[in-house]
Amino acid sequence: MRNEEGFANTGFEIGLYTLGDLVPDPFSGKTISARQRMKEITEAAKLADEAGLDIFGVGEHHRLDYAITSPSVVLAAIAQMTKQIKLTSATSVLSTVDPVRLFEDFATLDLLSDGRAEIITGRGAFVESFPLFGYDTGDSAALFSENIELLLKLNENEKITWDGQFRSSLRNADIAPRPLQQKLPVWVGVGGTPNSAARAGRLGAGMAMAILGGDPARFKPLVEVYREAGLKAGHALENLKVGVTGHGYIAETTQQAKEEFYPYYSNYKSIVSQQLGHGEGRMSRFEFEKVAASDTALFVGSPQQIVEKILHQHELFGHRRFMAQLDIGGLPFEKVAKSIELLATEVAPVVRKATRKENVLVGV
């Protein structure tokens, strides 16, 4: 599919990401093991690759209710099972990971995968990694700011001399191995703050927006801030890449998708609310119908509904990539697999065709 059409490297990219949550099934109350979750994640990546999707990402959490603490290790395993799909973190918690270690791990992944590695960085929603690795949560913003700048310098140079506040200095240090790609693609995950968007633009990194619900139009100012800051810093517009990430579920009809997904999405919302200390927060069916409406950013519905939502956001943002998180709240793997199939065979070809003319005209 990708090779015949030629969309994989030049067109609109569509893929998946997972955080590997370990939560009780809302019907049985049982939670699968971390081992089983890993098997399902790697199988999902294999399915996505075989179906012609463009990118697969895994998140990073340091809690017992998530299966993935080391994205590079999981992606290295996936690299051996796949052939074409790009592999990224989603996200690497850069406030508490050493940038040199992160770069070396993903440069190694790039060599193992024949040039398919990327990094999406972020600050993360949880704070467990701070005491775990000896950092102060009060330094989160400063740590991220320093570490993203160092990461980008490592990406540019085989040897580096550098001084910072939070880690030991580097003096003509070898940064090895070098990736197969000339540089690793680096993105910054942005949740909704203009300052984060502006920083991503100034640095010339890609911007991956997490749009998890509501009216997507509220994110349009972030894209404008990002591109304005990037152009002001001297970066070419074609290098200022925007991606959208969001929750989703696809079935043959929109009604079927809602019926099947609601118990698991409500389960997810309740558990995450508890994890963040906000109480149980279980979502009613009435509330779900509102957040899953056709004009919202929750990607739940038939293939046609998902196409319409992606293209509507493309009109707003002019972005080049969409990544769906399909496996939340204890959703059984057979339902995830069917959703992957529909995304790859009925959504992706339509979106690629609809955006192809524009991509050719701008030379993307």
Describe the structure.
Helix 3 (71-79) packs parallel to helix 4 (99-112) and helix 7 runs parallel beside helix 8 (220-232). The protein has one domain: TIM Barrel, CATH 3.20.20. With 364 residues, the protein is of the alpha/beta class. It contains twelve helices and twelve strands. The relative contact order is 0.15. It has an eight-stranded parallel β-barrel with strand order 1-2-3-5-8-9-10-12, surrounded by eight helices. Strands 6-7 form a two-stranded antiparallel ribbon.
Query: How would you write the strand order of the largest sheet?
Result: 1-2-3-5-8-9-10-12
Please give the share of residues in helix: 40-55%
Number of domains: 1
Distance N to C terminus:
19 Å
CATH C-level category: Alpha Beta
**Low-pLDDT sequence parts:** 1-9, 360-364
Rg, Å, rounded? 20 Å
Order of helices and strands: HEHEHEEHEHHEEEHEHEHHEHEH
Write the CATH fold name: TIM Barrel
Oligomeric state, counting identical vs distinct chains: single chain
Please tally the β strands and state the result.
12
Sequence-ordered SSE layout with sheet pairings:
Elements: H1 2-5, E1 13-18, H2 34-51, E2 55-58, H3 71-79, E3 86-89, E4 92-93, H4 99-112, E5 117-122, H5 129-132, H6 140-156, E6 159-162, E7 170-174, E8 186-190, H7 194-203, E9 206-210, H8 220-232, E10 242-250, H9 254-275, H10 285-291, E11 299-301, H11 303-317, E12 321-325, H12 333-362
Parallel strand pairs: 1-2, 1-12, 2-3, 3-5, 4-5, 5-8, 8-9, 9-10, 10-11, 10-12
Antiparallel strand pairs: 6-7
Helix pairs in contact: 2-12, 3-4, 4-6, 7-8, 11-12
